[in-house]
Specification:
Number of domains: 3
Protein name: Actin-related protein 10
InterPro entries: Actin (IPR004000), ATPase_NBD (IPR043129)
Distance between the termini: 80 Å
Family: Belongs to the actin family.
Radius of gyration: 32 Å
CATH class of the largest domain: Alpha Beta
Pfam families: Actin
CATH superfamily of the largest domain: ATPase, nucleotide binding domain
CATH architecture of the largest domain: 2-Layer Sandwich
Organism: Pocillopora damicornis
Structural class: alpha+beta
Length: 468
């Protein structure tokens, strides 16, 4: 018997929940309240004989299908056999996906799971719905702010109420941070202090985001230059004994690009208000009072305060003041960290909701169905299927329509049966306890009710015969 076949034989085999983000991947089991491991979404892969570290999610449209298949295969092999230590053949899988996930990526990861790892079933669950599951609310405005993209989705009773998605793709602040560091930062090496651009040509900005924060909105007069930053500098260690010095202005103003807007004037705050404005008018107040913030960027200190400040400033502008008649904006306090909210929502999908309602097999794609169709349906149009793989009836059974004569005949038959049963219960000098209880519940004599119903049915039958 292989080694990994004996791992976890004595334990209950819960489903595996995997949330693959642009920066980090959360993986764990459906029985737990937090991810078992949070790892980088990168894999060291051999391409054309050269070992290269590639990202699992970003730029997947530029990769060939066979190359993407090899990358996802190696990455999931690392997740199963290095971190989770389970046999993939015995575990169902939940993949927390973004609504902007490409079809190529979905089909490739499904092919890897079914063909290579032979998992029993796979469920692709959207991020925005999973975030609401953690709070137990059916409606809300979900703002998913990740490392490479920001999505605003209005949800009403677990359905996207607007075809418009407030969307701003923002590889801007990581790129902006890299440009600022290359231009203005210094690095200390063994020979002395030199500009960073003279030592390194490319820089991984993910680790330096931790040194930044979101500053409040500058409230000075329009056109007045911003004063010099009073934030202290930070020395951040690099590999090889090198130390990079990050200035306070870079730490303070890196995230301003998300709130100041792009060339079209779109920012996170404007996307959020535009999404509410595109929704039906009867759902706007409910959405504005149920805003849910998820994603790793939301965890930056000062992000929530700055977002509320920007929203209330925009509500005073003529564009929104004349169309959005609301004065209250409320944001939920999620039970976990913002980067693990979608993963936690994937847990009750199996344990609390799908497990209790026994619809797990209806919404998941099984291995047999995938081998038959060789495709993955979209999450919004996943067809229901039976548990025992029985054929699905395309035509619904219609309710038979009965005439008044047939209805009266059925009523009279039931009344005769009821009167005969009542007479048997009441026969004899003494009544049984069962008969007494029936009389008390009925509140009177059952024979009188039966006889009256028989008379009414006979009258209706005579009227039908005269009309005929």
């Amino acid at each position: 018997m292989p080694l990994f076949d004996v791992i976890g034989l004595g334990a209950e085999k819960h489903a595996v929940v995997i949330d693959i983000g642009a920066a980090y991947t959360k993986c764990g089991f459906a029985s737990e309240t937090s991810p078992r491991h949070i790892i980088r979404s990168v894999i060291t892969h051999t391409i054309n004989g050269e070992r290269e570290t590639v990202n699992v999610v970003s730029h997947e449209q530029d990769k060939r299908p066979d190359e993407l298949y090899a990358i996802l295969r190696d990455f999931l092999h690392q997740v199963y056999f290095r971190y989770l230590l389970v046999n993939p053949r015995d575990r169902r899988v939940v993949i927390c996906e973004s609504v902007l996930c490409s079809t190529l990526w979905r089909n490739t990861i499904a092919k890897v799971l079914f063909k290579h790892f032979e998992v029993p079933s796979v469920l692709f669950a959207p991020h925005h719905l999973l975030a609401l599951f953690t709070l137990g609310i059916p409606s809300g405005l979900v703002l998913d702010c990740g490392f490479t993209e920001t999505i605003v989705l209005p949800i009403s009773f677990s359905v996207n109420v607007s075809l418009h998605m407030g969307l701003t793709v923002n590889p801007l602040y990581p790129k902006h941070l890299e440009e600022q560091l290359m231009e203005r930062s210094l690095v200390q090496i063994e020979t002395g202090i030199k500009p960073l651009s003279s030592v390194m040509s490319k820089l991984e900005t993910l680790q330096f985001v931790r040194t930044c924060f979101v500053a409040p909105k500058f409230s000075g007069p329009e056109g007045e230059p911003r004063p010099a930053s009073q934030v202290p500098k930070v020395d951040y260690p690099l590999d090889g004994g090198r130390i990079i010095r990050i200035e306070g202005q870079i730490r303070e103003q890196t995230f301003d690009i998300l709130f100041d807007g792009d060339e079209e004037g779109k920012s996170i705050a404007t996307c959020l208000l535009d999404s509410i404005l595109k929704c039906p008018i009867d759902t706007r107040k409910q959405l504005a009072e149920n805003i849910v913030l998820v994603g790793g960027t939301v965890m930056t200190p000062g992000f929530k305060h700055r977002l509320l400040q920007e929203i209330y400033c925009l509500l005073q502008s003529p564009r929104y003041k004349e169309n959005l008649f609301m004065k209250t904006i409320k944001m939920h306090q999620i039970p976990v960290t913002a980067n693990c909210t979608s993963w936690l929502g994937g847990r009750p999908v199996f344990c609390a909701i799908f497990g209790a309602l026994e619809v797990l097999a209806d919404r998941s794609v099984t291995k047999e169905r995938y081998n038959q169709d060789n495709k993955i349906p979209d999450w919004a149009s996943c067809e229901e299927q039976t548990v025992d793989n029985a054929p699905i009836l395309e035509e619904r059974l219609e309710r038979p329509v009965l005439s008044r004569r047939q209805t009266s005949g059925i009523t009279s038959t039931l009344s005769n049966i009821s009167s005969s049963l009542s007479s048997r219960l009441l026969s004899g000098s003494s009544r049984s306890p069962l008969a007494s209880s029936l009389l008390q519940r009925a509140g009177g004599s059952p024979t009188s009710g039966a006889s009256s119903s028989i008379k009414e049915s006979d009258k209706e039958t005579q009227k039908e015969e005269k009309k005929g």
